[in-house]
């Protein structure tokens, strides 16, 4: 079958498409390089109301923690965090945990590198509710690749459950969390700061090993 020659306008449009394709590829490459250079990561911090999420964020960032009100909606905190002499830019999404707000959590799943689930270790009566909400999150497709850090918060309170007890009450096992997911349960107190830096060091290091190992 004879080949039909392209007209000049058709050839020009084809050339423009090729140029646009490679221009876009170049732009994506630049974006990746910028992200690598800035070493950004996105942390989604959720949990039941009164778990201490905002206190955790402010304590880690060295801010005043007195007089905090419950979060309605969400806050975004951008902070520099140093691990092993390397500075990372953390974008922490602190989302309110009231029952009326939980249906909106899914609006914040996109591009999450780490899921930080904060637990009030002293609120034994709500552990079943806490377990159910966390289990639902772990089944979300957009969070399947995210590192999981569970903060067993309020360890300074008398009667607070230990890390092992929190893990058991939340039903956390390799199978329930996901065999390929990196995860850890860490004891901490946002009120005193105890355990928080070690926990954040772990989660930032883990995300960095996935995102920036070859950077």
TrEMBL record:
PANTHER family linked: ADP-RIBOSYLATION FACTOR-LIKE PROTEIN 2-RELATED
InterPro entries: Arl2 (IPR045873), ARL2/3 (IPR044612), P-loop_NTPase (IPR027417), Small_GTP-bd (IPR005225), Small_GTPase_ARF/SAR (IPR006689)
Binding site for GTP: 47-54, 97, 153-156
Xref: SMART domains: ARF, SAR
PROSITE patterns cross-referenced by the UniProt entry: ARF
Annotated positions binding Mg(2+): 54, 71
The UniProt record lists the keyword Metal-binding: yes
Origin species: Pycnococcus provasolii
Pfam families per the UniProt record, alphabetical: Arf
SUPFAM superfamilies documented for this protein: P-loop containing nucleoside triphosphate hydrolases
Protein name, as recorded: ADP-ribosylation factor-like protein 2
Alphabetically ordered keywords of this record: GTP-binding, Lipoprotein, Magnesium, Metal-binding, Myristate, Nucleotide-binding
Family, per entry: Belongs to the small GTPase superfamily. Arf family.
UniProt-recorded Gene Ontology molecular function terms: GTP binding; GTPase activity; metal ion binding
